[in-house]
């Protein structure tokens, strides 16, 4: 069943991209928080 394998591959790519986006957002939020702390805003 080639169709199912292709679908699973696409689903895997979507999950990887989603996870990458979430991790990137978390990293950016952390860096902004650190920058604000260094500037004495918080």
UniProtKB/TrEMBL annotation:
Pfam families: DUF2474 (PF10617)
Residues that span the membrane, as ranges: 12-32
Lineage, top ranks: Bacteria, Pseudomonadati, Pseudomonadota, Betaproteobacteria, Burkholderiales
Annotated organism of origin: Massilia phyllostachyos
Protein name in UniProt: DUF2474 domain-containing protein
Keywords tagged on the record: Membrane, Transmembrane, Transmembrane helix
């Amino acid at each position: 069943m080639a169709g199912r394998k292709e679908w699973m591959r696409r689903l895997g790519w979507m999950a990887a991209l989603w996870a990458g986006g979430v991790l990137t957002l978390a990293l950016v939020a952390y860096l902004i928080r650190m920058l604000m702390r260094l500037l004495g805003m918080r």
